[in-house]
Design brief:
single chain, 10 strands
Length: 488
Amino acid sequence: MTNITLMDTTVRDGNQSNWGATGLDTGMMVQIADVMERVGFEAIDFISSTHMAVAVRYKHQDPWERIRLFKDKTPTTPLSFLTTGMRFISWEVASEEFMAFCFRTLARNGMERFAIMDPMNDVAAMVNMAQVTRKSGAGQVVAALTFTLSPAHDDAYFAGAAGQLAAGGHFDKLYLKDPGGLVTADRAKTLIPALKAAIGDLPLEFHSHCTIGLGPFSYLEAAERGATCLHTASSAAANGTSQPAQASIIANLRDMGHTVDVDDEAVAQMDAYFTALAAAEGLQHGVPGEFDRRYFHHQMPGGMMGTLKRQLAETKRAHLLPAVLEEVEQVRADLGYPIMVTPFSQVVGTQALLNVVAGERYATIPDEVTRYVLGRFGKPSMPMNAQVEDRVRSSKRARELEAEPHMASLDELRRKFGTRLSDEEFILRAVMPGDQVDAMKAAGPARRDYDARRKPVMDLMRELTSRKGLGDVKIERPGFKLHLKGSA
């Protein structure tokens, strides 16, 4: 039996999968950081450029400050950044020079581990990004090979890609990323050994989701077959469409005879903190997902599934969901079986929704679908439907988008935004609307003293003080006094 380490996903993927990426703010994360440091994680899945944008747009918080504050409290635990292709926040293709500048700035602010994912599993693109990242100061560079189901994606496909990624010595580790939670225990029995045989001594990690309840079972099988690091979340942010809960995975691994060298008291303290936080903030506590075989067909990730349901409900078309999911299968086949991960789950899901609502297939084609067909995101694993491809390429909009310029060079961006900005602010202004960055700057430093116990009191005070003509209010209970004086 082997020693199994854990990668924590609570503050990024758990937060994204179950709480729409907006459940946690800087203060909430920093308050528990020293406890997370004590757990003994292999690393903490901390942030991506998308999460940096969320911090600015929805929380009016500086993501660079968030990284620095958290890193100050986790000096020995590597913080991980997930990058998804040649882009940073914006889906506009960035120059290699700009990406290197972003990575250098991330490394300088405290990011040590960089996970490289390509939505097409383009090995050449991943190797190139690894080289850029390494030169930019990354301490660890990890290849994220994304799992999917299609006629082309058998064990040999994944083993071949893994072997190529391992061959050049560009990566320190490889992890199998299963965004749809579709790896069954039986598939793990064959796929994990195939990957191990292909990558040799390179450490293998496994990352899946509990969307249809398979994650806890595939994790245990993966550990038996050679994966030495599993990605888990604190109980409140686990399950649902997130990763398996760390406490139960730890207990099950030990029951099987494996060693999991973590501080159990810190694990329990971390679970208690996020459970109290979720209750105080009205965030759904993750529960195991029910098994639903339809996911093997449409492969829609949990986040995009939630978006589809919301869009249909808002337009009073919730009854169309089964038809949309059936259409997702057809659109995915038409587009050459793209992996259902950002941005392709959005590309496929949106096109399927439009096809069903319009009652005509491809009557309306979003720009992102056109960009996909034009090859802006790479080459799909299988040929596209020739009729669909021709329809898109021959459109007037396709010709307009083909002439669309790529993102400006680093020098051009510097001239546009000025040279007096810090590197951190310059990056945000280069890829985000200026008014959003202005609002973040105006908000000032993030609060660092979050306490879930204060949330009900603060909500009560806001409600009471919003009422006009209210006199003095006194609330007393053992250990607590509140006195609000009404204005004269």
